[in-house]
Amino acid sequence: MIHGWHRTDIYVKSKLLWCMTLMADYFYATSRLLVGALLRDPRRCCEMTVRSMIRFGQLNETADQILKVP
What string of DSSP letters covers the chain? Predict the structure, then answer.
């Protein structure tokens, strides 16, 4: 969904673009997880690692629902 507009065929039209976007998002979540693990403040460490784990779950659900081959 972008700005509240939902187009159902957008994923089918450019799967390559969505794969590249997902890979970039995985890289970003991985870097946040690593930075979170290296922080000295336990509260910020916990927040960053939990948020990145939540993001990994969201990305996996997106990949399962959108990119599966019929």
Answer: -BTTB--TTHHHHTHHHHHHHHHHHHHHHHHHHHHHHH-S-HHHHHHHHHHHHHHHHHHHHHHHHHS---
- Its pTM stands at 0.69
Token representation of residue 10: 């957008």
For the chain, 70 residues long, give each residue's pLDDT as a single digit of tens.
444 455 556 566 777 777 778 888 899 989 988 988 888 888 888 888 899 999 898 888 877 777 665 5
* Residue 36 counted as domain residue: yes
* Domain, as residue range, for 23: 10-66
